[in-house]
Structure prediction request, 349 residues.
Amino acid sequence: MSQDESLPPGSSLYEHGVTEVAASERTSVTVAACPVCGSDEATPRFEIEGVPQRMVVCTKCGLGRLHPMPDAETVRHYYPNEYYGEPGIKFQSLVERLVRIVGARHISFLSGGLHGRARVLDVGCGRGVILGALADRGFEVHGVEVSEGAARGADPRAEIRVAPTLADAGYPDAFFDQVIIWHVFEHLEDPRATLASIHRILKPGGRFIIAVPNFSSRQARLTGPAWFHLDLPRHLYQFPLAALNDLLRQTGFAPESVHHFSLRQNPFGWVQSALNLWTRLPRNALYTLLHHRAPGAQPPYEAATRRWLWFWLVVGTPIGLGLTLLETAFRNGATVHVVARRSSAASPL
Ligand SMILES: [Zn+2]
Prediction:
């Protein structure tokens, strides 16, 4: 789809319905070896509207993944241009402003403890929002992005390479002080190879920060196929926190801390997942409403539906925030970020 083709109101090109696989069909099937634990047994869990893949769950470690794994060309079609928004703008302006305020906290977290001229890479940097903010603080910023369109309009101080995989981007060994992969890892075809590449290009003792949805969270378990962060079929993998930590250790990283609180992701995840579960509103309609539209384009949905969505946003956000504080207290964040160090051992890939 080209940028100037507008979608009819109410249509949401990139929302695929998700349903539970019937209990009678939830018997284990043989699949390719699990990238975390090597098991070749998995249980079908979710059907995804419009694609032949199902999401299966590893019977040993609980990793969720698409089966069969689609090829790169198929995956490309899961991302219409509107997924990325216009350069520099992804959300409506009010939401964008809130995102920026929350973003300042986020940048402090990402830059805390780095020396003044640290060289930082953001994997899947998109429009380079993180990189621009890190450049403001004086860091040397690099980004890698699979989509040329997504990186268009990025901060000119960021040195961005467009490549199909991190290995193809061709960075030298031990080049970066820090690598960030923020809600991107679950979109990548080969998690083990990605971690091996990150291990190679990080300096020994360098810091790695990874954020993913937590498939073992209460939010994921309670809302099942309605979970906002499933984002099927674009999320090729769903990581339970234990499986992620296990994979990090196996690939030469020492996890240092796990963070369960995300103001940007987790309260909204509760609100949108609850709407998906308990209302007849279109899947992820609130997210679609808040998503940026081209100037002059029709807003999505009828006026009455939009009013309901705003109502649920206002009513649901304090509840979502309360649940987020609870899940943080129980160290069970709906999305988590892990800070790890490259350990001296070579990656065993
Ligand atoms: Zn497994």
